[in-house]
Amino acid sequence: MPHFDLSLDALRTYQPELTAPDDFDTFWEKTLAEAREHDLDARFEPVDVPYTAVDIFDVTYAGFGGHPVKGWLVLPAGTNEPLPAVVQYIGYGGGRGLPHSHLQWAAAGFAHFVMDTRGQGSGGSVGDTPDPVGSTPSQPGFMTRGIQDPHEYYYRRVYTDAVRAVDAARSHPLVDASRVAVTGGSQGGGITIAVAGLVPDLKAAAPDVPFLCDFRRAATLTERHPYREIALYLKAHIGEDERAFRTLSYFDGINFAARATAPTLFSAALEDLTCPPSTVFGAYNHWAGTEKSIEVYAFNDHEGGGPFQQAAQLRWIPGHLRV
C-alpha cells in the first residue's frame, strides 16, 4: 500500500481543530467522581504458573458503575519493595489474554498491570470482563454502541475502567504509586491518550499507532474497520451525523492530548489504513506536554514498528520510571 495520507512534512504540522464541547472537563470530572463512589475493591489472587522469574496475580477491581473488571498483575519473582509500574491497555477486540503473554515488563524489572477490556476478548486474545450495559441501535462492533448520547457511549465505560486500572495498580503494596506509566497499541494506544488526559500525575505515556483519534477525519478517510463502523452507522441513520460526532467529541484522543502533560513516546506508520497517520499526528501535535517524541515507520501498515517499537519503549520508559 503506497502512502495515502498527508506527506510527512505536512503530518508534522497537522493540527486539526479541537472538538471538545464546553462541558468536556465537567463531563469527565463527574464521570470519574461517580465511579469513585464505588469501593475500588481491588483483589489480587496468586496464579499458579510454572515460572520461576515472575509472580502473577489475577486481578479484579471495580470499574465504571462498580462493574467488576479483570486484569493481570505481573511482578518479578520475590519482589519485596514497591516497584515502578507499567499499566497496559489492549487493542480492539482483544482481552487480557493468558498471563504468559505479558512477561516483558516484569523481565525488565517493573510491575506490569494489564487491563481487560469490557465486552471484548474474542478477537485475537481472550477476555473475561462482560459489559452489562445495553445499547441503542448500533453497527456491529463497539464504535457506535450508545453513540446517540455521550453518557451512554461505550467508551465512557472503557475510559473510566482504564483510569480505575491505574487506581487499582497503585493500590497494590508492591507498586510505587508515584511512578506509573501507561501504554498500549491501537485501541490500547487511544485509551492510553485518554488516561494521560485524565490522570495528571503519570510519569510517562507511550501510545503505539493509537486508535480513537480525530474521529471525523478517520471516518471519512479510511474504509477499514473499526472506523468504518461509524460510516456504516451513519449510512443507515441518515441525518444523525452531527449528533454522532458530538458524542464522539467527548472521547476523541485529540481533545485528551490537549490536556495531557506527561512525557510521551508515540508511534505512527505511514501506510496505516486502520489508524491513518494524520489521525495519530493530530493527537501528537496537540499533546500539551513539552517532552514528546514520535517514531515513524515509513513503509508499515497497522503493525507499526512491532518489535522495533517495543525495543524503543524498553529504551524510553525506564528512563522516566527509574528517576
- Which fold name is given in CATH as the topology? Rossmann fold
In which range does the helix fraction lie?
25-40%
**Could you tell me the radius of gyration in angstroms?**
19 Å
Structural class: alpha/beta
The number of helices is 11
When the domains are counted, the total is 1
Runs with pLDDT <50, length 5+? none
CATH superfamily: Alpha/Beta hydrolase fold, catalytic domain
Question: Globular, elongated, flat, extended or rod-shaped: what is the shape?
Answer: globular
- In the CATH classification, which architecture applies? 3-Layer(aba) Sandwich
How far apart, in Å, are the first and last alpha carbons? Answer: 42 Å
Proportion of residues in β-strands: 15-25%
InterPro entries: AB_hydrolase_fold, AXE1_dom, CE7
Organism: Streptomyces endophyticus
Protein name: Acetylxylan esterase
